[in-house]
Amino acid sequence: MEVLEYLEKGKHAEEGEIYCMWDDARQHVVNADAKLAVICSNLMKVYGYKT
Predict the structure, then answer these.
(1) Which positions ≥6 away from 25 have C-beta within 8 Å?
(2) What is this structure's pTM?
(3) Contact 29, 1 (CB under 8 A)
(4) What is the pLDDT of residues 13-46, one digit of tens each?
């Protein structure tokens, strides 16, 4: 994630720019979590577990 690169390597960026990168990274995690929940639920149904 771009925000981690900026924070780890100490690259310079405007405060608003860092906030936008942070918000994008957070949204990416939220979206990935939702997709993973759907995938896990489908697997549970395929293999006979109730969700």
Answers:
(1) 1, 2, 3, 4
(2) 0.69
(3) no
(4) 777 888 888 899 999 999 999 999 999 999 999 9
Closest to 20 measured CA to CA, from 34, 2, 33, 35: 2
Query: At 2, which amino acid appears?
Result: E
Q: What span, in angstroms and rounded, lies between the C-alpha atoms of 39 and 6? A: 32
Distances (CA, A) of 9 to 5, 23, 27: 6, 19, 22
Return the structure tokens found at 20: 């936008």
Q: Is 35 helix (H, G, I), strand (E, B) or coil?
A: helix
CA–CA gap between residue 32 and residue 7 (Å, rounded): 22
